[in-house]
Amino acid sequence: MKKRLFALVMAMSLLGATMAGCGSTGEGSGDANASGGDSAAADTGSYKIGCSFDYLSDFMANVTDGVNGYAAESNGKVSVTVQDAEYDVAKQLQQVENFIAGGYDAVVIKPVDAEGCAPMASACRTAGIPFIIVNTQANCDYDTYIGSDHVLSGKLQAEYVGEALGGKGKVAILTGELMVQAAIDRLQGNKSVFEEKYPDIEVVSELDAGWMRDEAMTKTENWLNSGLDINAIIASNDEMALGAAKVLKENGITDILVCGIDATAEALNALKSGEMAMTVFQNGYEQGYQGVKAAVDIIEGKSVEKYIDVPYETVLPDQADKYLELVGG
Amino acid sequence: MEKTKGSWKSKLAQIYGKAGVLVILLIMCIILSIATDTFLSPRNLINVVRQIAFWAMIGLGAMCVIITTGIDLSPGSVAGVAGLLVAGAAQNPDTPLVVMFLIAICVGVIFGAINGSLVAFGGIPPFIATLGTQITGRGIALLISNGRPVNGLSDKFVFLGAGSLGPVPMPIIFLAILSLITWYMLKYTKTGRHIFALGGNEQAAIVSGVKTKFVKLFVYIFASVLAAISGLVLTARVASGQPSLGDGYELQAIAGAVIGGTSLSGGAGTVYGVICGTLVIGVLNNGMDLLNVNGYWQKVAQGVIIIVAVLLDVLRKKTSK
Amino acid sequence: MDKSKVLLRMEHISKVFPGVVALDDVELTIHPGTTLALMGENGAGKSTLMKILVGLYQRTSGSIVFDGKELDTSSITKVIQQGISMIYQELNPISNMTVAENIYIGREPYRIKGIMLDRKKIVQDTKALFGQLGIEGIDPRAEVGTLSVAKMQMIEIAKAVSYHSKLIIMDEPTSAITEKECQQLFRIVRQLKAEGVAFIFITHKMDEVFQISDEIAILRDGRYIGTWDADNLTQDELVKNMVGREITDMFPKEPAEIGDVKLRVSNLSVKGLLHDINFEVRRGEILGFAGLMGAGRTEVMETLFGIRKADTGEIQIDGKTVKIHTPEQAISHKIAFLTEDRRGNGCFLNLSVQDNIMVVNWDMMKNTMKQIDYGKVKQTCDEQIEKFNVKTPGAQQIIGNLSGGNQQKALIARWLYSDPEIIIVDEPTRGIDVGSKSEIHRMLSRLAGQGRAIIMISSEMPEVLGMSDRVVVMHEGTITGILNREDATQDVVMRYAAGLENQFR
């Protein structure tokens, strides 16, 4: 009997810890709640907005900042909860359902899977609350999509590489997990440019490094060891690009261009030091900010565009400082 | 006639029994050295060992836990938390290396003590208990880092992962040291022998005066400390504290240990097996990269090799009976 | 007994395992409606022969004719369908299913074919089956896990009958059941014999062999020695043929000097299990513990050894009160406990002989650096293996590959190396061949002679009576009598064990 009780208590506390680990409730800069209180009285315009993001990576931390930033500016009018779906569609659906059950006024998600959002959309539809997706386009009945076209980011990388190599050379690509839409889109963007504009650029290898720096290092080492002749490495995010750059630096190789996406602080510094050649800025902060803003607008009955574009921007070494200020590095 | 045939077969079974995974490993190496002209280059071989070093360090701990018929799903997260905290300390160039190791070991002891207590005293099945700490640990890593990498680590710290002594990269040196410690612990200490006894027959171990709860607590702490050190070295290797560091490493480690002959029913496992088992995975990944095999097929092959290795082990046990 | 008809004839059976010839040109004949006891020391090949018969092993050569036809031994299921069932020593019922489900598993009748099981029918069929066999007191709907070993055995027999088996093989059927249950078992066996069913018994208990069997077949070292009518064979001749030598004294307790009280247990109680246990054992004494299964003898020893928690009670060693809450403390007080359930809590079956001997002795193997000294370990193991005559290719052999007798000797080596002063042995010779048995008896006798106190639990009456200086008899968690050697006869002990008499009431 005692044993069982102990087990139960442990399970509960574990569960508690887990939830604390996954969700971070941002009410802005602290005094937000003090003025507005957390009463759910809708007439005074106090909204609870639930966010479920596919994975709390470095980039998604920017989106989260944008979300919290809007909440902070709202002076307590808006409170947000951010949860991590850990690349798990089922988990994301659960989180959305919990938001609905918890009486939230709107749901903002970054989809784990472009095809897996329909049940979440219809659940929100049934509950009569807005369903907004950010960052990644999804095939479902959403109210609005705030994002940047991932295919475009891949195209920007390929355009840069095509031009820098003078239209001729060999390229290796580090992709993210090819179960995630962004990975597929970016790869497609890379290839479409090469096929249409630079037929003499050959993609000699494309390997899945799962968005991770350590795996990217392993893959790059293996490329070098396989004697593959490479002029440029295109990575589908900065983490992988940094991993590739690190291995190249260790081996004293300076003539391979490394391209990333995200413009993280570390990547921008790598641009400045010459270890990376370019990255693509995706304005995560703006995506998160616009996502919550759109949610509030819909709740308040304002009309909102079906697609709000937050464009990607190519970042070259001479612009690194400017973007460093933006991302707060 | 029959007798000689029988003994020939049993000899083969014996050789396989002793060499085990080494046979699979050698076959893979031979195939790869024929299929590529770069696999056998010293540089590539050193690379492969360095790449698996992190899994193998965790695998050593996983083996100890599995010998007691337990399982530990948390080492990936423990590595993540330890790596982040150590990275935080390593941002200050004046932090001595000893302090960083102490931080990692503390993280390991704390997580291990939680796992071990839940299993030994709480009576929670190890799968559930360590799944809980795995998730909690990852959450803690995200919380303390706010989802962002920790950069600007001191050179002397980065040397622990990226440097090398002579031609030997540091991660391999760490793996060698931890392997020696594990081998010694299992063979030359009473606790080590009791780990086998506990896994062989828990009831008999109790009757024989083995402090089974203590032994359980010990193996989980031991496994977590190895994971934490692996996290430290990996953080130094990537020169950045990563909240997602070590994600999924526990599965590679467990797979490596099991391919290396660690019995999931307890009581059997060797350091040598863990190293060979993880090498099988590492060589497979490396070989497929060298051959430029598409990522989807890589996953298929990894799954197949695990099943084949364990199947061979089961067959070997059957024929030896 | 009708010897004109032959039910089963196995001829020229050989079985070669890699490197070992387990059976060499063995034959066996059994007639319908008879019982044959298959005897031999452990490792003689009895189990292998039976496993070949039921299709668990494939024979290397030889022929098997059953009921006039060549027997198809390609699978266990086929053998069962042809009318041969085997009841194993370690029964493997599915303990969370009911009695009826266990009997009809794999051939469940359907009410709607493939969709809905007819649970009522199997319960009715089971009842009918039990009625036919005169089995009482088993509810077909009870979960098997809640029943005693004896009842599980009855269920296995009923299952065999339900398959219309013409031959039922029983491996050590009485090793885990009480005398009374044993008689009930034999009654059913006789009833089925009358209906023409033949039985093969594998057993080590001499008295039973003569009580139940018509013929006795003997194997030795994988060879067939012969088959005798039970009436024409004496116990001595049987033993001689089994071991290939004569064992003159089966229970050689040698007189030893009885010294001071070594261990005294007072007022020991465990709620619901043991009530007010008081006894003492002296140096040089063998104290026997007799009683029926479930009388609480093992539980007394487990409590004494710190495996179970006592609610009340005091333990004195050499006149001093000691606290024993864990086995470790017991070991430090120089108590050794050779447990009853060799496979369950004695052996580490998948570990080596060396690890099995050393598990309680590692502390003594450390060198000055606190490191285990493998030179010493090897030397000690080799000495112990030699001393206790453990037949093994070496200390690194996995103990699960040894015979039961040799496992037991290795366990004795484990406990005796630390030089214990109080030795508890629980059913030390159960399931062990005759040769090893008398070796173990001589060993216990010698240990007592060295001034150690020995407590021996045994369910084999001749063993208890032959070996003990005094006999403690237990009944339902209490001690009903403590008898001196000269007063302890089979009758008297049985009366105390059955609770008919009680010295302390």
Mind sketching the topology for me?
The complex is a heterotrimer of chains A (329), B (321) and C (505).
Chain A (H helix, E strand, L loop, with lengths): L1 H21 L1 E3 L4 H6 L10 E7 L4 H16 L4 E7 L4 H13 L4 E4 L8 H10 L3 E5 L8 E4 L2 H15 L4 E7 L5 H17 L3 E8 L4 H13 L6 E4 L2 H13 L6 E3 L5 H9 L5 E3 L2 H16 L7 E3 L3 E3 L4 H8 L2
Parallel strand pairs in A: 2-3, 2-4, 4-5, 5-6, 6-12, 7-8, 7-9, 9-10
Antiparallel strand pairs in A: 1-3, 11-13
Helix pairs in contact in A: 3-11, 4-5, 6-7, 8-9, 10-12
Chain B lengths: L1 H18 L1 H15 L6 H26 L7 H16 L6 H24 L5 H20 L9 H8 L1 E2 L2 E2 H19 L1 H11 L1 H6 L4 H27 L10 H11 L11 H20 L4 H26 L1
Antiparallel strand pairs in B: 1-2
Helix pairs in contact in B: 1-14, 2-13, 3-8, 3-11, 3-12, 3-13, 4-5, 4-6, 4-11, 5-6, 5-11, 7-11, 8-9, 8-11, 9-11, 12-13, 12-14, 13-14
Chain C lengths: L7 E10 L2 E11 L4 E5 L6 H8 L7 E6 L2 E2 L5 H6 L2 E4 L11 H6 L5 E3 L3 E2 L1 H15 L15 H14 L4 E5 L7 H16 L3 E5 L3 H7 L2 E6 L2 E7 L5 H9 L17 E10 L3 E9 L3 E6 L5 H8 L7 E6 L2 E3 L4 H6 L2 E4 L3 H5 L6 H6 L15 H14 L16 H14 L4 E5 L7 H16 L3 E5 L3 H7 L2 E6 L2 E7 L5 H8 L8
Parallel strand pairs in C: 3-10, 3-11, 6-9, 9-10, 15-20, 15-21, 18-19, 19-20
Antiparallel strand pairs in C: 1-2, 1-4, 4-5, 7-8, 11-12, 13-14, 13-16, 16-17, 21-22
Shape of chain C: globular
Beta strands of chain A, count:
13
* CATH architecture assignment of the largest domain in chain A: 3-Layer(aba) Sandwich
H/E topology pattern of chain A: HEHEHEHEHEEHEHEHEHEHEHEEH
Distance between the termini of chain C: 50 Å
What is the percent of helical residues of chain C? Answer: 25-40%
Given as residue ranges, the uncertain stretches of chain C (5+ residues, pLDDT < 50) are none
| CATH fold call of the largest domain in chain C | Rossmann fold
The end-to-end distance of chain A, rounded to whole angstroms, is 54 Å
Principal-axes geometry of chain A comes out as elongated
Number of helices of chain A: 12
Q: Total domains of chain C, how many?
A: 3
